[in-house]
Specification:
- By secondary structure, the protein is of the alpha+beta class.
- It has a single domain, classed as Nuclear Transport Factor 2, Chain: A (Roll).
- Strands 1-2-3-4 form a four-stranded antiparallel beta sheet.
- A hairpin with a 2-residue loop joins strand 1 and strand 2.
- 16% of the residues are buried.
Length: 144
Amino acid sequence: MFKFLILGLLSCFLISGFTLAEDKPTEESLDKEKIIAVIDAQLEAFRSGDAEKAYSFATPGIQRQFPNSAIFMQMVMNGYNVLRQPTQVEYRDLRDHFGVKVQLVQLTDLNGFIFQAFYQMEQQNSGEWRIGGCMIQQVDQDKI
């Protein structure tokens, strides 16, 4: 009887040890949280029409390509309009593509069309994440 009690207690400790180990966030999960926060903040800036704030989440390379927030917003309105007012945002996988972090995001526009966005994320020397590019494609299906 005592032997079974000891084995039972040992099993509980082992199981709780495994649970604690699984609950500890990994570097990958922490990166994903930070990356999602950056994308969320930029989407919110687009929604509220704050071009300067939306622009601040772009990497220095993107900022060189679009030298001010007005030009940046014009580019977004011309080719990335779904980012301005998505009705639904769903974060998918964070992938490593040849050393580059790519966050997949599914967006639904005001007309119900679904788009897949591939955000190229770059970690700056300061440790913060910024958006280094975004490719969007419409999902091959009708409106929802």
